[in-house]
Protein: Nephrocystin 3-like N-terminal domain-containing protein
Organism: Tetrapyrgos nigripes
Amino acid sequence: MRHERENLIKRTVKVPNATSTDEVALTPAESINQAMHPEGVRMNAGGNTYNWNNVQGNQTQNINNDNRSKIQEWIDAPNPSINFNAAYNKMTKGTGVWLLEDSRFNEWKDEGGLLWLQGKAGSGKTFLCTKAIFSISAEHQVVYFYFDTLDQTKSKGTYQGMLSSLMLDKPSTTCIFIDAMDECQASDQHLVSRLILDLVELGSKIHMFVSCRHTASTVGISSATYEISLNEQVVESDIQRHIEQVFQDRPLSVDVHKEVTEALAHGAHGQIRWVDCQIQQLQELGTRTAILTALKNLPDDLEETYCQALVRVNKHHQKDVEAILKWLLFGYEELKLELLPEILRAASYRGREEIVKLLVEKGADINAQGGQYGNALQAASYLGREEIVKLLVEKGADINASRWSIWQCSPGCFIFGKKEEIVKLLVEKGADINAQGGYHGNALQAASLEKKQT
């Protein structure tokens, strides 16, 4: 039984391009891919050189960085240091100290076993897990993994992703952190639970730290050595400290500061994420009266907070927001910068001015070529989107930077389509009126055909 557990933990894999008889077990040697903390402490997210052992011949060879990269890509292990650094950089200074001082945490550090951190959504589990990782790393090397349902690659929500990531860390590490186990895919949760139990049973040198919305027993783990529940009283000091830190950067009058602090602390119910959402809304208000009025109508929980955020969207943009939300929630591929020009052309064609503004601000290439109408400017021009044409020109769209003539995006283009105001604007901005191409040849011929005096 013990042998089976060890086989589960130390998986045997076949290396790409190896001979058919070569089965190798990955054993990390020296570490790289280190994420640098603001204070200069390096966190291991992988290994620099790996040794691989021929199981049949018991031979050892070094795997250099190039081969290691190929193996890591083949294993397709997610990089948990991205989550670590994101959480670390958002932490409010001084929060989470209570956990490091908790007797159960310190006993776990000394004695090993399984420490289970349970708390509802938005209670700060990820920040506390990150705080613990940072603290432990000063004394030991650590292995850690963040389950993440928002991960665009989808690999941070699976058992395979977790195991692949842990395989790339040092086997000598005895402190293992798993954050947000509840975000693991339901079909894989029993595998993760089994692995946790098997690791803990290996001996007292294994220190497991797991955070989850649910209690340990709820997910089939009845042998947690220590359990810490993030109730309202436990995280209250962190919430107070976070509020104080935020309003140091934007001071309020004494009476308003007191009202805000009391209202947020009272309504948080242990959810620091709820507090952060309300602060973002309050910071948009410019007067004392507006702030005090808003405090009387705070949402009850995170779900209501998110619903109110959607309701506040301008009614003219609600359909767009709903479409974008569905795209972000259910898209199987990460939204990359290279896709922005295509989206920009579609938004220009449809007349979605706010989306066009947002995409341009986020770096979409205004002059990128492609699609039925050539580029965003031609798409907007053809449909008579005058405001979007003005916006694109103001933002630097090159009127003559097209693989087609600006007049050529369809027969007669927008001259034939009676878009005189846009024509005037483009001519004033330097469009080449003699450019040849298209069904009608050039702008003058297209206008003449329709007997236009433009």
